[in-house]
Amino acid sequence: MKRTTENRFILLALALLLGAATCALAEHAICQYEVWLVDQADTSNGTSLIGYGGYVHIFKSYDLSQPAQVVDLGKEASQLCFEKTGANPVRPHMLVFNKARTHAVVSFVASGHVLIIRAEDRTPLACFRTTAGFNGFRQAHAGFPTGDNRYVVVANQNGKKLERLNVDWEKEVFTHDVDATLSLYGNCTTPNGARCEDPAFRPDNAPICTPNLGDPKVAFATLRGGGLFVVDYTKSPMAIVAEYDNTTVGANGCGGVGAGNNMCVSACAGMWA
C-alpha cells in the first residue's frame, strides 16, 4: 500500500479515536493521554529495510509535534512472533486498544500476525498467526477487542475468515481459539438460507473490520465487496445472526462506533443497526 500524507493524517485521526487515554480532573480539566501511530514501513537496520517489523510512534497529548517514544516492532515483537509462529510479522496495519486501554492489539496485514502489547511498558506479550483460508491465503487486516472484555475478533481478509482470540486482560492469558473460526466463503450460508458469498449481493466476502458491542455480544463484520454480517462472537464456531447486502452497506467499510444498542459503521454511508 502506498503511504501518502493523507493516509498518515487518517491513521493519526484513528489513533486519536482509539488511543489510550486517561483524563485527570486538573484545574483546567485537561485530558492527559497518548496517541499511538502505526508506521507500516518495514524496520530499517540502518542501511536498508529488513522486510518485516515496523514502528509504533507514541505521542504525549501535551506535545504532538514529535513522538515521546518509538517502538521498533522489528526487535522484541518480531522475535516473539517468530518464536511462536515460525514467521516474521510484516506490515502492521491496524492498532486497536481494549476497553480499559491497558493493552493494544496490532494486526499485521501482509503476514497475518496479531500481536498483543501491554500499554504501560510497551512489552509484547503474545503473538498469533491467522490460518490459511480461501485459496491458501491469510491476512490480519484488523483485530477488535470485544466489549465484554473476553475476546479479540480478527478479520482474516484474504483468507475470508473471522478468527477469535480468547483473552484475560488482567491475568494476561491469550489463546487462539481455532474452533471458533467462521469461514465466509464456500458452503457458508446465512440464517435465511442464502449463500454468504453471492456474486450479486455479496461478491467478495473478505472481512475488513469487526467493530462490536458488549451487550448484545455481536460483531459487525464489514466486507470488501460490500455487505455486512452481524456475528455472535461467543459461539464456537462464531455464528452469523443477521445479514446485509451491498445495496445497504457499501464496500470496504471499516470504522465502527457503538452507542448503546446502536452501531454506526463507515461504509460509504453510515449504517445504524
How would you sum up this structure, described in words?
The protein has 273 residues and is mostly beta strands. It has helices at residues 5-18, 76-85; strands at 21-23, 31-39, 55-60, 69-72, 92-97, 103-108, 113-118, 123-129, 142-145, 151-156, 161-168, 173-176, 182-183, 218-222, 228-232, 239-244, 256-259, 262-267, 269-272. β7 and β8 (123-129) form a beta hairpin. The chain contains two helices and 19 strands. The protein is 9% helix and 37% strand. The strands form five sheets. Strands 9, 10, 11, 12 and 13 form a five-stranded antiparallel β-sheet that branches. The chain has a four-stranded antiparallel β-sheet with strand order 1-2-3-4. Strands 5-6-7-8 form a four-stranded antiparallel β-sheet. The radius of gyration is 18 Å and the shape is globular. The model is unreliable at 1-6, 8-29 and 268-273 (pLDDT under 50).
